[in-house]
Here is the input.
Amino acid sequence: QVQLVESGGGLVQPGGSLRLSCAASGFTFSLNAMRWYRQAPGKERELVAGITSGGSSTHYADSVKGRFTISRNNAKNTVYLQMNSLKPEDTAVYYCNTRLRGNEYWGQGTQVTVSS
Here is the structure.
């Protein structure tokens, strides 16, 4: 079955960096676009970044452009989110996502807290 397992979250000071990873299994990773979402307390889940199956095209929410970078390693079935210049408003649970045959699949999420 499809599994997405996020890791790399934690507590970081404003201006700091984190790299999130999402290990995928149960499907042909290299054929699927991948996305990172986040959900802050009391807010709706929002799309942060996406990457095409081959990695040639990416897109970002306006709020993270220039600070976050999504990438993937198809040989390792892993997608990454490099987060730089973190702000307190980036605090959220971050989720990995993919879509297969009309179904959405999510990881369990990893908590990112930006605070001094």
In short: The chain has a mean pLDDT of 97. The chain has no helices and eleven strands. The radius of gyration is 13 Å. The longest strand covers residues 92-100.
